[in-house]
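Side project, low priority. Logging it here so it doesn't get lost.
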Amino acid sequence: MSTPPFVDLPDGVTVERWPVVGSERAIMRTALEAGRPWVLLVPGFTGSKEDFIAVLPLLADRGVCGLTYDQFGQYESDGSADPADYTIERLADDLRVLVGVAMQRFSLTTPPILVGHSFGGLVAQRAVVDGLDVAELVALCTGPGALPAHRHGGLNDLVEALPHTDLEVIWGIMQAQAEAAGQAPVDPRVRDFLRRRWLANHPIQIREFGHQLMTAVPVTSRVRDRVAEGLSARVLWGEDDDAWPIEMQVQMAADWGVRGVELPGVGHSPNAESPRDLVHALLGT
């Protein structure tokens, strides 16, 4: 779970709801303007658009537009009780439609730099191999498919508990575990947001995302084919990433035939831990 450094909207950042595939998605964005490059950021498991709240204004400072969203069933976006609505294929369809909505609404003339974080990276990869046109694909702290079994941790327990166990009960268990592990205290406003976000998630979404993190099939060869056709892509990970093993992410970059970049001093959520360094890695000097 990414923990944003703050939750108050920065100047120039707005939150909206857009109609997408017959329902609505919660959007967070800066000004989107034709002729300017733009970045679309896809959040991961138990995440939301707020995972990138500190990234968006930094992109704007560099003259780059930014857009992020709650995936279907996450936080303030609509969801459903149908597990079939949460497959990676359906989520990738959702992403492709969202790109089209953004480009039409703001008369954008160039495709986005697509950054998929963690589980969002699996969705981003699938969208690209299924035909989404992007300026660049950036896989951020993600892997080619399912997490290896030794990194499943309590995922299976969570999947088994949902949707039969109340999210409030699960939240209490998670907080007790964090306290027992000596997790650093979080700003009270951020802590309140994290609880509110967790409770607003659709429980079927949490269950299905968790299940896919343990079962997702890699699309490595198809990404490699897109790269061979001219797709620009990179793999970025934190030095202390504790989700997909770093050696797996290094190998993914090699298998794609693209550059891998390690971000020093950060873990699984560079977007929250060191957003300025992430923006520098995305855009360069």
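Brief comment: The radius of gyration is 18 Å.
Revisit when time allows.
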